[in-house]
């Protein structure tokens, strides 16, 4: 796990990154700027618990490719989930919190994940424990209205103009960041390379 000083605000950007692309870099840039982050941990998962791992490239390969996208000195590319023994975000976040009780963390995800967030293990606990920033993505723009997470935690949604304060707020607190969007996806990149799955 990267080193971080007490009181800092750290964005946690988990993903398969199979492979990473400019859309991920855009999310990282938006999060760094609009959430006023001190660090962003680009967390490469050994495998999303809800996705098939059939076409998943080795973790070391995905990690190396992510490094190429992480030009900002505030970004730390990591794969520490590998040694935690769980890829469930709720458990990963609990381990992060236990090791860094005085650090402020924000979970960051694209809007497509907001749509399915209620399928994640202990999703309500995640939302009640960690502030969340959702970054808009083509095809998922309306998820901030329609998703189960958005409806359940409607009362905890903050205006995106207040996003720089999110890291200092008690959960549940979340925001949806509109702005430049990227059509890129790993699925399309894999298909272009003839990788099925
Ligand atoms: N173009 C994009 N715009 C906004 N968010 C994105 C974009 N691409 C990926 N994300 C977000 O980045 C995180 C990691 O995404 P992931 O590695 O699954 O990429 P992906 O392109 O969605 O992959 P796949 O097509 O294999 O599902 C997720 O939170 C996802 O929502
Ligand atoms: O904990 C879960 O149940 C869970 C279900 C789906 C996805 N996640 C996490 O969400 C992050 C984004 O996943 P992905 O595949 O969309 O890049 C990544 O860190 C996954 O491990 C977590």
From TrEMBL:
Pfam families: CTP_transf_like. It catalyses: nicotinate beta-D-ribonucleotide + ATP + H(+) = deamido-NAD(+) + diphosphate. Pathway: Cofactor biosynthesis; NAD(+) biosynthesis; deamido-NAD(+) from nicotinate D-ribonucleotide: step 1/1. Keywords: ATP-binding, NAD, Nucleotide-binding, Nucleotidyltransferase, Pyridine nucleotide biosynthesis, Transferase. InterPro entries: Cyt_trans-like, NadD/NMNAT, Rossmann-like_a/b/a_fold. Its EC number is 2.7.7.18. Residues 12-190 form the Cytidyltransferase-like domain. One of its GO terms (molecular function) is nicotinate-nucleotide adenylyltransferase activity. Belongs to the NadD family. Catalyzes the reversible adenylation of nicotinate mononucleotide (NaMN) to nicotinic acid adenine dinucleotide (NaAD). This is Probable nicotinate-nucleotide adenylyltransferase.
């Amino acid at each position: 796990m990267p080193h971080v000083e007490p009181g800092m605000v750290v964005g946690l950007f988990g993903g398969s990154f199979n492979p990473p692309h400019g859309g991920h870099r855009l999310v990282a840039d938006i999060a760094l700027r609009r959430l006023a982050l001190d660090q962003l941990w680009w967390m490469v998962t050994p495998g999303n618990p809800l996705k098939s791992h059939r076409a998943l490239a080795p973790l070391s390969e995905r990690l190396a490719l992510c490094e190429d996208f992480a030009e900002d000195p505030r970004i730390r590319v990591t794969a520490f989930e590998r040694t935690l023994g769980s890829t469930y975000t709720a458990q990963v976040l609990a381990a992060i919190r236990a090791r860094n009780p005085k650090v402020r963390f924000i979970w960051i995800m694209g809007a497509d994940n907001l749509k399915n967030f209620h399928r994640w293990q202990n999703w309500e606990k995640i939302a009640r424990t960690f502030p969340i920033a959702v970054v808009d993505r083509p095809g998922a723009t309306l998820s901030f209205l329609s998703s189960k997470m958005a409806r359940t935690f409607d009362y905890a949604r903050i205006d995106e103009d207040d996003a720089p304060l999110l890291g200092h707020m008690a959960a549940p607190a979340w925001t949806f960041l509109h702005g430049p969007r990227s059509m890129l996806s790993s699925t399309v990149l894999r298909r272009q390379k003839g990788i099925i799955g």
